[in-house]
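User: I'm designing a mutation panel for Transcriptional regulator, TetR family and want to avoid disrupting the core. Could you give me a predicted structure to guide residue selection? Please restate the sequence first so the numbering is unambiguous.

Assistant: Good idea. Sequence first, for numbering, then the predicted structure tokens:
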Amino acid sequence: MPVTAHARPPELSRQRDQRADARRNHDHLLEVARLVVAEQGVGASLRDVARRAEVGLGTLYRHFPTREALLDALLRQGFARLVELADELAATHTAVDALTAWLRELALSAAVYRGLPTALAATLDDPDSALSTACGALRRAGGQLLANAQAEGSVRPDVTGLDVFALATAVAALAEQGPLAERRDHLLGVLFDGLRPGPPLATQPLPRGPRDDAGPPHG
């Protein structure tokens, strides 16, 4: 029977239905993964994700080949918003206020899942990680805010974008430790004070301690 102008070939309809099913499975897996990772942290069992989504582990891996790929999907929207926020802050705040406000948001975002700060820091040594692209965009956004603040003389010139990314994620990691959770803003304040212009203490020799004089430990 000839296909009319309004009829859809069976193969095209089948492909469309398959794509719709795949999209629904993808969204359902993400919804379940968000709950499991919120409960267990970034080291959450992928078997638990598949079991609670009522799919096979192979189906999960077809959508998200690695744990990092799953995390990237969970974090993509929030990270994109952080990149946009950098531009908004740069347009509405002084350079140093834009940088400090953005770093605080970065530290808060890095703490959304337990263990995430460490996972983000690990991308510095793993450019092939699925998280690396998103983290690279964050570092570039923060690096531009840093350059703006350095240009106006508000931030010491020896600090790099990599430095501030590492320091913000380090504060987020420290805040995961029970007693320090309530001191996150204080730790960020110490970080911001350290960014202010002044003698670059980090380039001066550190005072020697007892261990320096004792030599290496004996086995």
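For picking mutation sites, this is relevant: Residues 68-198 form a domain with the Tetracycline Repressor; domain 2 fold (CATH 1.10.357.10). The chain has a mean pLDDT of 85.
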